[in-house]
Amino acid sequence: MEVGQERAPQAEIGIFGGSGFYELLASPREIWVETPYGAPSDKIALGELGGRRVAFLPRHGKDHRFPPHRINYRANLWAMKELGVKRIIGPCASGSLQPHVKPGDFVFCDQFVNRTWGREDTFFDGPIVTHVSAADPYCDEMRKVAAEAARSLDFPFHERGTVVVVQGPRFSTRSESREFRQHGWEVINMTQYPEVILARELGLCYLNISLITDYDVGLEGEPEVKPVSHEEVLRVFAANNERLKDLLLEIVRRLPRERHCSCAAPSSPA
Questions:
Q1: I need a surface site. Which of 55, 146, 153, 229 has the fewest CB within 10 A?
Q2: Which member of 42, 110, 216, 246 is catalytic?
């Protein structure tokens, strides 16, 4: 199926589950979706959330078998497009680089910095060269709705922030983390790139929800704050799973039926 070709939609909103977040919908219908880029990370669960048709896919697979650099991001996004999805919500476990962004906070990022390499990160492999604007990669309309939802639930949140995306699966060295922090970036994560830019290539809106689980390598001057571990990430994420589900439900309920953003604007061939 070509980009832009329409078929009867099975879902309108797609949600990717991050580390420790593998189920969302009650009694879903699970399907495999074939794509030109291979298989998605797992079966896609179709169901209803807040009166809207939703497709849910754990980006690492239900058994977390795909590390960040091995996720088939192109297949995941293409599968959502095939199902009729117009908007993507991408929750993810993330670390904080700044003292004021605390574990348990939600950050709705509006910018990213890519520090990954070797990932398949475009649908436009030629023969016609196409350039996509990445100036504002996240959907401003969805981000504002998310802020309203978090405010209504009295959840701690930050309406914008920059996420630096690292290759993984290892965590940062102290020197790397210091560099990121000195740039003023707020969030560190391993999966936001190329997920968000692939959504933009397909004309899909994308909202990031960074659930802060840790302070990366700790806080300078506070030795009692230890460097992050995988076990701690999963523990904090699991402890906040219900809050995340409540937030997702409220966001989905509040999203307008029609899009009033520029995310679906066509790309520009060279």
A1: 229
A2: 216
**CB neighbour list of residue 256: distance below 8 Å, 6 or more residues apart:** 141, 145
Give φ, ψ of 111 to 5 degrees.
-145, 155
Q: In angstroms, rounded to a whole number, what is the distance separating the alpha carbons of residues 94 and 39?
A: 26
DSSP 136: S
Nearest CA to 85 out of 263, 266, 268, 269 is that of: 263
Instruction: Indicate whether 41 belongs to any domain.
Output: yes
**Calpha distance 188→199 (Å, rounded):** 20
What per-residue confidence (pLDDT) applies to 227? 78
pLDDT at position 8 over 90: no
Bridge partners of 48? 53
Could you tell me the pTM of the whole model? 0.92
pLDDT tens readout for residues 61-86:
998 899 999 999 999 999 999 999 99
* Active-site entry in 110, 121, 214, 246: 214
Structural domain includes residue 3: no
Residue 224 belongs to some domain of the structure: yes
CA distance 99 to 219: 7
Q: What pLDDT score does 250 carry?
A: 97
Return mean pLDDT, the chain: 91
**Euclidean distance between CA atoms 268 and 20, whole angstroms:** 38
Domain with 171 in it: 13-258
Active site residue 216: yes
Known catalytic membership, residue 214? yes
Number of domains in the chain: 1
- Specify the CATH number for the domain of residue 93: 3.40.50.1580
Question: Could you tell me where the beta strands, DSSP code E, fall in the chain?
Answer: 13-17, 29-31, 44-49, 52-58, 87-96, 106-107, 111-115, 130-131, 157-158, 162-166, 187-189, 205-214, 268-269
